[in-house]
């Protein structure tokens, strides 16, 4: 499988100086969700690179919404 490694802040979502604590605080950059969907449709797995430890909780919340 092919993978695309994406940085969270400034690539997938608006960069924030504060800690993002919930899915409601996470703001995708325009076009980023469609671009990630296109990568998935092309057979790429998506890997998110981040130093923010709380992202796991946000990703889990988003997965349950989808």
Question: Any descriptors?
Answer:
66 residues; alpha+beta; Rossmann fold; two-stranded parallel ribbon; 2 helices; 2 strands; 32% helix; globular
Can you walk through the features of this model?
The protein is an alpha+beta fold and about 70 residues long. It has one domain: 3-Layer(aba) Sandwich (Rossmann fold), CATH 3.40.50.1000. Helix content is about 30%, strand content about 20%. The chain has 2 helices and 2 strands; from the N terminus they run βαβα. The protein has helices spanning about 30-40, 55-65; strands spanning about 1-5, 45-50. β1 (about 1-5), α1 and β2 form a beta-alpha-beta unit.
Summarize it:
By secondary structure, the protein is of the alpha+beta class. It has one domain (2-65): HAD superfamily/HAD-like (Rossmann fold, 3-Layer(aba) Sandwich). The chain has helices at residues 32-41, 55-65, and strands at residues 2-7, 44-49.
SS element count, helices: 2
**C-alpha termini separation:** 23 Å
Please state the average pLDDT score. 82
What CATH first level would be assigned? Alpha Beta
Helix content: 25-40%
Relative strand content: 15-25%
Strands ordered across the widest β-sheet = 1-2
C-alpha geometry: globular
Order of helices and strands: EHEH
Number of strands: 2
CATH architecture group name: 3-Layer(aba) Sandwich
Largest sheet: 2 strands, parallel
User: Would you identify the regions where 5 or more consecutive residues have pLDDT less than 50?
Assistant: none
Q: Quick one: CATH superfamily?
A: HAD superfamily/HAD-like
For this structure, the CATH topology is: Rossmann fold
Number of domains: 1
Task: Tell me the Rg in angstroms.
Answer: 12 Å
């Amino acid at each position: 499988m092919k993978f695309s490694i994406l940085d969270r802040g400034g690539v997938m979502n608006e960069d924030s100086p504060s800690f993002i604590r919930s899915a409601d605080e996470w703001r995708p950059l325009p076009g980023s969700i469609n671009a990630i969907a296109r990568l998935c449709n092309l057979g790429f797995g998506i890997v998110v690179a981040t130093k923010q430890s709380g992202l796991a909780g946000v990703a889990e919340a988003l997965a349950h919404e989808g």
